[in-house]
Amino acid sequence: MTLFKINIAGRPPITIGPESPVVSVGRASTNDLTIIDDSLSRLHARIRLMDGSARVEDLGSMNGTQVNGVRITGPQTLKPGDVIRFGNVEATLSQDQSSKVVIEYQDSPDLPRSTIVMSAAMLRSGLLGPAVPGMDRWPRAMSVLQGITLGLIRDVSAQQLLEDLVEKLFDFLEAEHGVVLLKDASGVVEPVVVRTRKGRASKSDIRLSHTLVEAALDRREAILLRDGGGDPALASRSLIISGVTTAIVTPLEAGGEVIGLLYFDALLARKPFDEDDLRLVTVLAHVAAAKIQNAKLAEEVQNKRALEQEMAIARTIQQRLVPHGTPHEGSFQLFATLRPAKEVGGDLYDYFWDEKRLFFCIGDVSGKGVPAALVMALTKTLFRANAAFLDDPSQMMAAVNLRLYEETDPTMFVTAFCGFLDLESGRLVYSNAGHDRPLILRPGKPLRTLEAKPGLALGVFPKFNYPLQEVLLAPGDSLLLYTDGVTEAVDPAMQLFGLTRLEAAMDALEPLDPEGTVYALIDAVDGFAKDAPQADDITTLCIRYLGAKAPLKPGGEGTTAFAGTFDRDTASLGDVIGLVDGFITSNGLGETPRYLLEFVLEELFTNMVKYNRQGGGRISVELAIQGPELMILLSDPDCPRFDIRSDAPEVDPFQPLESRTPGGLGIYLVKKMVDRIEYDHLDRVGTIRLFKKLE
Amino acid sequence: MLEISEGPNGEIALAGRFDASQLEVAKGVFLQLKEGKTVDFSKLDYISSAGLGILLAAQKNLGDKGHGLRLINVNGHIRDVFRLSGFDQIFDIA
């Protein structure tokens, strides 16, 4: 079986063999071998197994593929030791070789007189010729040997071979007991075949001489006890169990290790075992040991291959569980990647959309590998199922949480972030369940972290009120979500990439489409980690909101209302103005309404903050076109009554300079600018609506 | 952002948004003035009542109208704000 491996420093080797005859190499995560390096093309090269050889082929990459320093121009056959260069990344090809079974015997003459110790050399010479001429049992011994040896090459399980062996030797030796002991994984010998006069028996039916067993195991000697009962030295050492006078113990050795032993004994009534018996048993022990070793190796290889194959399939399935591509729907662009640290991982993301809204989620299951991957699949499915009939992210979190709590191990939990983006207004409603807060990239503005309450990871506690929050994305804004595999990536000195480096990398970034943004982030992480192995799954999801698809005329049917809630802080003014931008752009409005909206919102919002700093909750703002009018709404959820129509100071625009003060000027101007104002105050919620006829 | 620079003829040139977030920058310039100046509004997009407050304080510091600020190239929207507030009567708007 030919197996090749592609070895790249710091990464697990990739196998090319009958199970995986083609390995694609490139920067895209869809490759079998993904190498995140600028010098590689997305789809760079392919290595395939052909007629027992590995052949490499460049797939039109930018920087080419070299073999031993020479750029290849067509498919080239590789040999073990070849150095392949994909762009600037070097790989070597090696060939897999299976290890050989080694059996060793050691002589040790230091035993009581009545025992005989045989070496492998003695056994070979003894069996090649008639060691005991004229021995009438010899033809029978040969037939036993032949039958057992055939089992070695036939498709018989090791257990079956051992049972046949004991059965045949038991008859041949006219033994009282026949036992095969094998060491288990922890090195303890356990009987795997037990034969007594009464037929096969469980291990409680036989008492072995542990002194003999230990002598064989520790000294690795084939021991013949002719007449234990007559040997005072042995008798005094409690070698002999009641009635037993003769015994053979021979170790099963494979790969230089004692893996178990064969044991036969007989009663006083029978004549003692002789050297020929020992020869036969010892030779058959060779056969059995080789069979066991081969079976074990074959099983290991098979298991490993089956596991590798299954993991490769699992990886493919997992990658298919999450959507791919670069959706570009006029009102948004999106790109996401999931790169597990192992073949499969516990990160997840999902998204889907209709004309009105985009749903997305990202999550990270505690732990790695297969257990995490199973919960990942469950979590992703639960999100998808709930998103079909829920449009409130906090309710979705609660629903997914409850099912995860009920259906997974108590130690499993999932951090997640999900949201709906209204594609017309840019209004993003979201909920966080213990996940890293997403970043907002706005062209020309410093990077922001989305204000998100931490929430509690999913699957921890059955009833939890997940926070519901919202923000307004302006056209051009990108939302970048990631899992902690990004911030917890380590360099060779085990330093963490960290939030600071992440923010620095993203803040310095020129505005890019989501794919560019995601790869810029991954490149930054990989550039930092260098050849340190990936510690955790790395998942990134980036959404760029482009604004409503088709701006409509003011007053017309289907104009777009914009709404947002804002921190009670004058620093929120930038976001409030962002809302105006989106509203103006989406509805195709001109500069005059823009000025009006900006002015009214700034003056009133500033006033609300300034005169009600101790108020609780966020101030909400809504902008809409109602019939022929522009409607501006501001609402403070926790404020004393203040009706600007009656409670604001009057300003005389005709007073002389000396008596003028800036106080009240803003409110005065707002009142002058709009056509009418409505105000209500109920349960400390103050709401003002201002209307202005559109020209 | 509000940008404040000196124009080719020694005038103060404003650009961008003159709002509540820009008060400290603007105070540093306008409240230090010792004599009347021309202020070029041609690149100013927006002014809020906070901006008006600074201009008012500067105008008061500079005393009577003859030695105050002279505003040039004031765009339509900002001109409306000045008119509505009666500021067009206390500034020389060209």
| Beta-strand percent range of chain A | 25-35%
Kindly provide the radius of gyration of chain B, computed on alpha-carbon positions and rounded to a whole number of angstroms.
Answer: 12 Å
Number of helices of chain B: 3
What's the helix count of chain A? 15
Task: Give start-end ranges of low-pLDDT stretches of chain A.
Answer: 97-115, 118-134, 200-204, 231-242, 550-556
Multimeric status of the protein: heterodimer
User: Helix/strand-derived class of chain A?
Assistant: alpha+beta
Distance between the termini of chain B: 25 Å
Strand order of the largest sheet of chain B: 1-2-3-4-5
Shape of chain B: globular
Structure class of chain B: alpha/beta
- The beta-strand count of chain B equals 5
Query: What are the low-pLDDT stretches of chain B, counting only 5+ consecutive residues below 50?
Result: none
The mean pLDDT of chain A is 81
Strand content of the residues of chain B, in percent?
Answer: 25-35%
Helix content of chain A: 25-40%
